[in-house]
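Appendix B. Chain record.
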Amino acid sequence: MNEQDWLAERFEAYRPHLRAVAYRMLGALSEADDAIQETWLRLSHSDASAIANLGGWLTTVIARVCLDLLRSREARREEPLTGEDAAPEPLASLANHTHATDPEQEALLADSVGLALLVILDTLSPAERIAFVLHDIFDVSFEEIAPIVGRSPAAARQLASRARRRARGAEAVPDADLASPRAVVDAFLAASRAGEFDALLRLLDPEAVCHADAAAVLTGAPREAAGARAVAGIFSGRARVARLALVNGAPGAVWAPGGQPRVVFAFTVAHGRVTSIEMLADPARLAQLDLIWL
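Structure tokens predicted for this chain:
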């Protein structure tokens, strides 16, 4: 294997993560794929041997590519997109974009929080969107975000804070009081492992719901539960071997005995609390997900 083939192989390993990042920043799969191609071109013309952290380098580069695209879009004052790109595409379709999607499933996905978030992101400035997505969704530090948006770390923090307030429709509150989705899911898993029922209740929205597909039900999961106490009862003392993961780019968890994913937990987090958990165990569905273990 020559050096270029080796580099291409490593790049492909990061493609799902890059697509998840670019999609949330741009809201359209076609543009996300263009950003990935540009990122590959920049990597292929760089000295890869001098890159100490390839994952971080690629995330930084694709963020800069997306920022340029967003600024270009804003400068052109584009007309609304038509056809397939008229609205952001649902996140769950990311991993299998080249295959046909069932119309009924697509309609359900269109009502998902993931799509709603993308609509809100379209109201942000390019720099706000980049800072918010990188920090709140992908847990990138403000020190790393600062040079991407051309601001100081403190200014980058303010960008994310303004974006967060707009996304939540809430009054300004200190950043320290606003947990990122990843931190919320991580805390939820820790409370679940420890059997801390009250801690789970604090992390769950009062109206939280949990749904399990038919395959997950066969593993012993209830089909559905509604309300924080019911959902907490399902998870208290249970998630001892579940690992934090990115599920199509969003914080979630995976149970993978022997390294093979058996059950994936897709979390929806809003206002610092878990509002829904979807438990997926159908092998066909799992094969369509982009999973990155953390």
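Further analysis of this model is presented in Appendix C.
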